[in-house]
């Protein structure tokens, strides 16, 4: 089991307000992937905790066309969808430790449509007319990382122009090197601009719009 009894009980409490079914599409691989099995097991255990959570599992090397359809280029990966609608939200690497909360909160947002983003920020995010890619680098032991991930994922939920990836940097050290990740959370915006730390929502939106203006 991935979840101990106490964590499973807390998850059930956090998920009790789910409304519509959410499917966790999991991409895995049978070799050279340390956390793929645990990620699949995590989705399986969540589906047992709440029947509104469904799961689909695809093996990357055998079902590459489906991975390509969702733009999956690394594994393990989780894509939460509702009624086949893809919100551009991705979890790369197992969302364990503190990041388990990010997964639960994202499931809740996708299921209920509730996201706690301020109206001013909603208007600004929905006003974006060009593509935005957010990559939030995290580690399981970082208590501040879920705030950055949850906010980025909620922006993606709000706007079809925004894509948001959680990337567990220990599992993808080459990406940490590529983007100069020395501490977490670090959010990469459109490949070449950065936010350090878990900044307030308004600051996050300001930075995104500043990047687009350039």
What is the compact description of this entry?
With 214 residues, this protein is of the alpha/beta class. The protein is built from eight helices and nine strands.
3D structure, described in words:
It is built from 8 helices and 9 strands. By secondary structure, it is an alpha/beta fold. It has 2 domains: 108 residues, Glutaredoxin; 95 residues, Glutaredoxin. Strands 1, 2, 3, 4, 5, 6, 7, 8 and 9 form a 9-stranded mixed beta sheet that branches. Strand 3 and strand 4 form a beta hairpin. Helix 4 runs parallel beside helix 6.
CATH homology group of the largest domain: Glutaredoxin
How confident overall, as mean pLDDT?
97
**Beta strands, count:** 9
Q: Ends: how far apart?
A: 48 Å
Per DSSP, what share of the residues sits in E-state strands of 2 or more residues? Answer: 15-25%
Query: If you compute it from the alpha carbons, what radius of gyration comes out, rounded to the nearest whole angstrom?
Result: 16 Å
Shape: globular
The topology string of helices and strands comes to: HEHEHEEEHHEHEHEEH
Query: Which regions contain 5 or more consecutive residues with pLDDT less than 50?
Result: none
User: What is the makeup of the main sheet?
Assistant: 9 strands, mixed
Count every helix, treating DSSP H or I runs of 4 or more residues as helices: 8
Annotated CATH architecture of the largest domain:
3-Layer(aba) Sandwich
Number of domains: 2
Briefly, what CATH class of the largest domain?
Answer: Alpha Beta
If you consult CATH, what is the topology of the largest domain?
Answer: Glutaredoxin
């Amino acid at each position: 089991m991935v979840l101990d009894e106490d964590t499973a009980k807390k998850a059930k409490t956090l998920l009790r307000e789910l409304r519509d079914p959410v499917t966790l599409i999991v991409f895995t691989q049978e070799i050279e992937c340390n956390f793929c099995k645990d990620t699949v097991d995590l989705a399986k255990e969540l589906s047992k905790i709440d029947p509104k959570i469904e799961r689909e599992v695809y093996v990357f090397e055998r079902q590459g066309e489906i991975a390509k359809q969702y733009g999956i280029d690394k594994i393990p990966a989780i894509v939460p969808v509702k009624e086949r609608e893809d919100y551009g939200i991705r979890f790369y690497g197992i969302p364990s430790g503190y990041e388990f909360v990010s997964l639960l909160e994202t499931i809740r947002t996708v299921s209920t449509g509730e996201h706690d983003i301020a109206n001013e920020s909603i208007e600004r995010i929905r006003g974006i007319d060009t593509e935005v890619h957010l990559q939030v680098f995290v580690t399981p032991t970082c208590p501040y990382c879920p705030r950055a991930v949850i906010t980025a994922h909620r922006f993606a939920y709000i706007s079809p122009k925004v894509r948001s990836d959680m990337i567990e940097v220990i599992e993808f050290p080459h990406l940490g090197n590529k983007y100069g990740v020395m501490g977490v959370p670090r959010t990469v915006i459109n490949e070449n601009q950065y936010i350090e730390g878990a900044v307030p929502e308004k600051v996050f939106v300001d930075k995104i719009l500043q990047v687009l203006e350039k």
